[in-house]
Amino acid sequence: MPAFMLMTPRIKKQSLQAFYHPDYQAPSTEELRELMKDCAWTGAKVGALVGVDSRTVRRWTGGERPIPYSAWRLLLLYAGVVKVE
User: Fold this and answer.
1) Cβ atoms within 10 Å, residue 13
2) Of 83, 85, 72, nearest in space to 33 by CA
3) What is the pLDDT of residues 37-74, one digit of tens each?
4) Would the pTM count as exceeding 0.85?
5) Which of 27, 31, 24 has the alpha carbon at shortest distance from 10?
6) What is the C-alpha separation between 22 and 75, in angstroms, rounded?
7) 47-67: b or e for each residue (b if 16 or more CB lie within 10 Å)?
8) Cα 44 off chain centre by
């Protein structure tokens, strides 16, 4: 886990679980924004990482749409917060 996650535990443990885990909870918009901030990722960068446009990322960060689990998990992997199981 990167040092910034240890210093700023703003992402709840349940959001870091695998989708099939009984304790999994979808991330909040605040958790997504915090991950982006901690990694210095722009909406365009996040979109490029997960294959969507920046408008879609704005919808996720603005709460218009939830981020799909697959996109969330990819971001956690790119950030080094979780490992491939």
Assistant:
1) 9
2) 72
3) 999 999 999 999 999 999 999 999 999 999 999 999 99
4) yes
5) 31
6) 21
7) bebbebeeebbebbbeeeeeb
8) 14
